[in-house]
Amino acid sequence: MKQFVNFEKLPEEKKIKIINAGLELFSQYGYDQTPTDLIVKKAQISKGALFLYFENKENFFIYLFDYASKKLINEVNPNPPQINMDIFDYLPYVTKQKIDLLSKCPYLMNFVMKAYEQNYQLLKDKGGIDFFENYQKQASFIYDKIDFTTLKEDIFKERFLSWVTMISQGFVQTYIQFPSQIHDKLINDLYALFDQLKKSFRKEKL
What we know:
The protein is an all-alpha fold. It contains eleven helices and two strands, in the order H-H-H-H-H-E-H-H-H-H-E-H-H. Helix 2 (12-29) crosses helix 3 (36-43) and helix 5 crosses helix 7.
């Protein structure tokens, strides 16, 4: 991964402002449809400054994907904190980590998902994909460590995971579209949903 020395020398607050501007715009419009003029306007820097920091839009995009991947890996650890953790306890555990990350970088997860889906070959050609794919491979085995025996017998594990995935992705989309004043309500609604899932799909304790 190319080092961007001029950018790394900036004060942390200014770096985060530029990073979040890029994450927001690329997650909304995609790489191809995000013009440089819009990036510098959102980041409140000159076009010359952007070129000084990254040389071009492509390098900025690659930098953001590397940054976002590492941020995701460092702050969302899908490994359950205990052996054979109940799936109904696991859901709020891992979701809390995602919420904490969204509160600091609202567009980060949307950016990663869109970039990986739409610009896979660019990221692969530039050596920016391996770190994220290794994380995905590790995460794919997490559910082998989760206890699904408390799931009602007429509910297939794969179907339940599909539902949960859709809920999680929908929450990420919804969270960033609403003003910060109602974020707490969205979070409370999400946990209420987890409680309802537990009541509806968990076996009765003997």
